[in-house]
Amino acid sequence: MGRAASSRAAGAEPPLAALGLLAALGLLLRAGDCQLQAPCRIQKCTTDFVSLTAHLNSALDGFDLEFCKALRAYSACTYRNSKVCRGNLVYHSAVLGISDLMSQRNCSKDGPTSSTNPEVSHDPCNYSGHTEANEHQGGEKTIPTYLFCGLFGDPHLRTFKDHFQTCKVEGAWPLIDNNYLTVQVTNVPVVPGSSATATNKITIIFKSYQHCTDQKVYQAVTDDLPAAFVDGTTGGGDGNTKSLQIVDKVSGKYVEMHARYIGTTVYIRQLGHYLTLAIRMPQELAMAYEESQDLQLCVNGCPSSERIDDSGHLPLPVRGQVLPQAGAARPRSAYTLETATTKCHEKMLVKDIYFYSCVFDLLTTGDANFTAAAHSALQDVEALHPRKERWHIFPSSGDGGVGKGSKSFVSLGLACLILVAFL
Asked: Which residue would you say has higher pLDDT here, 357 or 403?
């Protein structure tokens, strides 16, 4: 009884258990090649199982259904080879492993099975499987390149090219507008007398794609972050495995959208009175747009007329105002440079662009929620950005570049000092 419970606990994660099983089978195959009889095709059964499960994601709904279908196909393959593989150690190890995995996932022995032909089993509504299908069809294996874009704070923009900018962009602006996806944000002034704005509305349009999904529209506004599309649904596509799905992570505060058919993930959060957004998308799809769609902040950054950082230099304050507007007086910030630095350091130990953005936002608005916004934005980078060495951007006096600094905020620390001096 104790041994059985221990075995079940150790195999609680089916992908890891399957990986261990397959690794063991691989070693046995190499060690016993000379003993295998020609008619025994257990290696083909195992290879097909790997092809059927390599693209599955245990974090998404429908994983159990597809994993069980693949296991039943694996089991059927071993059964067809039961006579010719009798006495083969690899075969019997596979049979025992399949039984254990089916028990762990509560898979019934009877039910639908996946096709054992990788070319036939390719799911056109799963972007991660596209390159695998090309490989099976004789093409070269290619690893898709993913891009990241994020918007948070006053607002601070990180483009697909990892350029970091601070912009005004008041009103409605397109972040992304390609053949597959449209993302638009609406920004409003944060405090009187300042051109700094923050996002209070996000609209996302997932465009219809083959039979994978109909067009779906999502809209979030301050204090209304729904876990459903505007039509009331929470996903797109047919069957139990949705090609488009909304996941409610923290009710009213944090949602995720997973679009399997275009390999895209979107995070939206509300922190204080404003919204933040982070997105990861395959490069080939992000760059699929017409000339008329070239106004995309994630692709080309903010227009020069909308830049607050002005090619690396934040504007100097005039009597406590940043980019003053006629007839408006900005209230004094509750933070000094020292207290703002201390507050931001509580959340972010690394003094990168996100840290300095936090300091700037506190000095500009006096709203402590912008500390959480900067911290969450960095967490989203770490979760979605495909290249770890590019997570942090550090200000420097050089020509800039990810990992070495960025022109956009070369003078941010100095500007913060000057800002405080005039408060």
From this structure: 357
